[in-house]
Amino acid sequence: MSEPSVRVLIADDHTMVRESLAGLLRGAGIDVVAQAADGVQTLQRAQELQPDVVVTDLSMPGLNGLEVVRRLRELARAPRVLVLTMHQEDEYILQAVRAGASGYVVKDSPAAELLAAVREVHAGRGYFGPQAARALAEQLRHPGRDLGDPYGRLTAREREVFHLIADALTTKEIARRLAISVKTAENHRARVLDKLGVRNSAELVRYASRKGLVD
Hints:
There is one protein chain. With 215 residues, the chain is α/β, with parallel strands linked by helices. It has helices at 15-27, 39-49, 65-73, 90-99, 111-122, 130-141, 156-166, 171-178, 182-196, 201-210, and strands at 7-11, 31-36, 53-56, 80-85, 103-106, 127-128. Helix content is 52%, strand content 13%. α3 runs parallel beside α4 (90-99) and α7 (156-166) crosses α9. The longest helix is centred in the last third of the chain and has 15 residues, at 182-196. It starts with 6 loop residues before the first strand and ends in a 5-residue tail after the last helix.
């Protein structure tokens, strides 16, 4: 019996990476229905095309991968999500799983591991590479462990504001983009800075860059 077809959307801001992944997947008989270069485009393509699996990076402009994972899982026909990233730190792995990712593979893994991960995730099972599996096992042994990442404590709206600040939008521009008042945008901005423990936009951008949340 032939394997069921798999429709995949690839999300990564690097064109060469997307093209390479698309070639690899198509060569294995997997249908790549679309590619997306940023978080907003990923959500739009997912809603339009309803792929079975979204393979997404975590560091993308506009809306980062963690937020993309959360929003994809909220869609009426939610795709399974496989994170493919350079980040091997426990905090990213755990945040991705909490956001709803069904799999986590790092980019220096063999190609065969990615193909296996796509098929496992499509079949409704989880797939976590060795680093991710170790982090999840460690979290089970120590569920109260504090990873010390304040980004994970931001609300969905605060994360939106976070990324708009990182994209150098002013408070007025953020208010227009989110269709909220300037005062409300100011309050969101103040809470984001307070939770992150930074004093201004420049420090927020440095924090985002250090954590790999922006390019």
